[in-house]
């Protein structure tokens, strides 16, 4: 192998939009089945392997650290649904989880010990048996029928997120002959378990049809087709198991239909017709529906009630507040929980069903993330919560509504002598160029000398929030003297809906300037010297944009499955997801102002001859969300045009958007990235 990088051939392709002619010399890389494309990607992999060969020992050390801190034989906290407790477990040496259940008795989950099985345990699915020798394996759904007798599950063996749906009789253990290829994630059972509703995608990978499958039948019926290319569809069953909920939504608009789950062959009824800019979601709560919506200027959403026979008539229950973003609502027989966000942190509000005063559950740490999770049972006096912080491993609590007590059921075991008191977490605020204060979450070992090398992570799109979270792999950085920080930039949802709106469409550049402001703040306040930027998918767009905006601020950039050819992708409605993305980025195909604006920040369009920091881009050949050609083109143009580097591309030739599927493979992938990050700042021991 040579230490000289591959040189991508140039095949100039001219395109003209709104009077502007651009030349894309690497567009040929879109041809996935072209032998030249595969040969180029393999040459890039060989070069990356050569350039990182000196890190193999460090990679192996970090892999062993991750593995050594992980309780490989472990299990989840059981979740009650009907007559059963459901849980999953992992076993040492096995890549995938095993789904199990035991008969239920009482509200308290059974006590399970890793490596042992309870009397009467039933294995529902073993991911390792399903995966066999396949190098990739993923599940799209696993749904037990309301009566607990049947299982719907779907599998993907290539990473393209096209699943094959199958059904299993849980009483006999037999897999039924019904088999449906080309299915999307999710699905929902009818009340009697005779019928399963599932989703399929169109050529642009947009989930657009809901099908009804009666077990034993081959005549599946399309019950709904969404013809507006901006909208996705999904289907679910309410926690009460009374209603099927068919939701159709774009990035900014919702329309919901409901159907009595006892009559699966009936007609879905529209709750309220779609109105551009109005989003709403519906939950069944006994004698009424609960509707969370943003109509009438409720930017951060308000919670309303609606009669069962008139679900489009909404009466306020929790009115809109400028300082609190309502995220979700969960209804139970005797209470309602509301998940919200305030001051950059999440929280949970309880609405007692007896008319008692609503209240919020309190938590002791200054930074944390909490959310209701695994609450499958409608009639219960407990609320299951997930909780974590940057120093507290993921924890599962039951909140007892009677005693108002948080009961710790499980905290992820971190082996190797991990002590949370060795680490500290902080909240800092950077000032953006327009004066906006941008929150930063920070974690560091208490004995770390500062300023220190820093990994700065960001995302900033789709109102997705990167809340404070714990990471076993991150300890390999912190214990080597790193600071880890999350830049909660605009475009995310950390500070409410307006925070998101100020970082999208023609305000997208706020996302990038916020991130640079966070980097400069960390240096100015003595936290950081050398900073590595890291982001994935839309976060890859973020770090690609700041590479053009302020390359001097960063000692390296890790861009994972990065959306770096944003303008060309959003101009091409034949590519997966493009039309649905116009509400997020704008429509450059038909709007010249959007075109001009996107052209000023799209990373691929703005590579020039300046000096860039070293860049590691990773991607997957079968990714259907951010296609492999985006980072491939970007790296090719950087290498041909820019100074600095080196610029590396690593392509998984048999994986999808989430990378390699097995946990050991994923750990090795992370060890590779972390060793590169450490090498960039000279920490290789």
TrEMBL record:
Keywords: Hydrolase, Protease, Serine protease. SUPFAM superfamilies: alpha/beta-Hydrolases, Peptidase/esterase 'gauge' domain. Residues 469-681 form the Peptidase S9 prolyl oligopeptidase catalytic domain. The keyword Hydrolase applies. It holds the Pfam family Peptidase_S9_N. Residues 5-412 form the Peptidase S9A N-terminal domain. Belongs to the peptidase S9A family. PANTHER family: PROLYL ENDOPEPTIDASE-LIKE (PTHR11757:SF19), PROTEASE FAMILY S9A OLIGOPEPTIDASE (PTHR11757). This is S9 family peptidase. It comes from Microbispora hainanensis.
